[in-house]
Automatic annotation (TrEMBL):
HAMAP family (UniProt xref): AdoHcyase
Species assigned in the record: Actinomadura citrea
Keyword Cytoplasm: yes
Gene: ahcY
InterPro entries for the chain: Adenosylhomocyst_ase-like_sf (IPR042172), Adenosylhomocysteinase-like (IPR000043), Ado_hCys_hydrolase_NAD-bd (IPR015878), NAD(P)-bd_dom_sf (IPR036291), S-Ado-L-homoCys_hydrolase_CS (IPR020082)
Record protein name field: Adenosylhomocysteinase
Length: 418
């Protein structure tokens, strides 16, 4: 039995889902293929993902392939109640999600999704898989395999695998080129700045924007912030990524130094306490703090609360102002959670088209391949990544060259000299 906020919102949800679907041609093609081939017939899927219009496209595709789906929210602040209602009332999924639910409700919903005794699990941050391995070990025997679509989740899964704790194979969908290159770089890059501007209406031109982390998400953010006229400072722990940022013309500083200079701070590392009490103590009056690194631990919100003598909640949507003892005001967006989903609408549907196409095709592959996989973190087969890219190019009417037989021979023979 689903647990959603308001079933009467279904009509509005359907309209928005259909709008997003227009920008997801790859997933539409896969849905048509699944409806004909039924690769997931009779299988049960439990997912912990953002409840958005784009996610609805994936759920409908899995259903077209024959799966029954139970869905919990991976972030209460990103949950769209009308989308949840549409998925339940119009599309026949089980959904356990309410916008703004607390931590207790969040985990209760994960447990409810797991009560369906799934064959496969789809995760966004590893909380569902973690719950299976801690609180619901009784269900581990029924789960055949899973997928993870975030960098943070993949990091946690690798830790589980190294310790011998992971009990079933999980595919790192996040690590495909068509996911991390486009979703992380182009999706996060645009949607994060969208969330910051919606929440604050700040002008980024002329501001110093400090970006913590220069992975794909950080690169996308740095490129787009610079394009909007900001001075961009990057903080990093990886010498290679720091060198890359430097060679691209960005300033690179330790956070302790960047904290003094920044007007806007954005964390995208997947780690905790990236902005800590020492950094908060030296920031400018009016500094804006935002996170797009999945969990609400990258900015030490507890330290910020302890330092504040006064807090003005909701001075703008998803915008809280913390007044410190010396009169400085620090502005926290989306409670330190994902600003691009809480204060905006997440990635554009055209980006999620590829990410969810990877998910759908990987699920279909797992339906036949899971028995041959060890309990470890596995890569998506290269042919799936290539197929998604090909379908996306076709949908954009972009053509590319093909190798001739002589070129194929040349690339695959060591006998041909210079």
């Amino acid at each position: 039995m689903s647990d959603i906020a308001d079933r009467s919102l279904a009509y509005e949800g359907v309209k928005r889902i259909e709008w997003a679907d227009r920008s997801m041609p790859v997933l539409r093609q896969i849905r048509e293929r699944f409806a004909a081939e039924r690769p997931l017939d009779g299988l049960k899927v439990a997912a912990c993902m953002h409840i958005t219009t784009e996610t609805a496209g994936l759920i409908r595709t899995l259903q077209a392939g024959g799966a029954s789906v139970a869905l919990a929210a991976s972030n209460p602040l990103s949950t769209q109640d009308d989308t949840a209602a549409a998925l339940v009332e119009e599309y026949g999924a089980e959904v356990f999600a309410r916008a703004g639910t607390d931590r207790e409700g969040y985990y209760a919903h994960i447990h409810q999704a797991l009560e369906t005794e799934p064959d496969f699990v789809l995760d966004d941050g590893c909380d569902l898989v973690n719950t299976l391995h801690t609180d619901r070990t009784d269900l581990l025997g029924t789960v055949k395999a899973g997928c993870e679509q975030t960098t943070t989740g993949v990091i946690r899964l690798h830790q589980m695998a190294r310790e011998g704790a992971l009990r079933f194979p999980v595919v790192a969908v996040n690590d495909t080129d068509t996911k991390h290159m486009f979703d992380n770089r182009y999706g996060t890059g645009q949607s994060t700045l969208d969330g910051i501007v919606r929440a604050t209406n700040t002008l980024l031109a002329g501001k110093t924007v400090v970006i913590a982390g220069f992975g794909y998400c950080g690169r996308g953010l740095a490129e787009r912030a610079r394009g909007l006229g900001a001075r961009v400072v990057v903080t990093e722990i990886d010498p290679v990524k720091a060198l890359d940022a430097t060679m691209q013309g960005f300033a690179v500083l330790p956070m302790a130094e960047a904290a003094v200079e920044g007007d806007v701070f954005i964390t995208v590392t997947g780690n905790r306490d990236v902005v800590n009490a020492d950094h908060l103590a030296v920031m400018k009056d009016g500094a804006i703090l935002a996170n797009s690194g999945h969990f609400d631990v990258e900015i030490d919100v507890r330290a910020l609360s302890d330092m504040a003598v006064e807090v003005h909640h909701g001075i703008r949507p998803q915008t809280d102002e913390y007044v410190l003892a010396d009169g400085r005001r620090l502005v926290l967006l989306a409670e330190g959670r994902l600003v691009n989903l809480a204060a905006a609408e997440g990635h554009p549907a055209a980006v999620m088209d590829m990410s969810f196409a990877d998910q759908a095709l990987t699920c279909a592959w797992l339906a036949s391949a899971h028995a041959s996989l060890s309990p470890a973190v596995h890569d998506v087969p290269k042919e799936i990544d290539t197929e998604v890219a090909r379908l996306k190019l076709d949908s954009m009417s972009v053509s590319i060259d093909l190798l001739t037989p002589d070129q194929e021979d040349y690339l695959h023979s060591w006998r041909i000299g210079s």
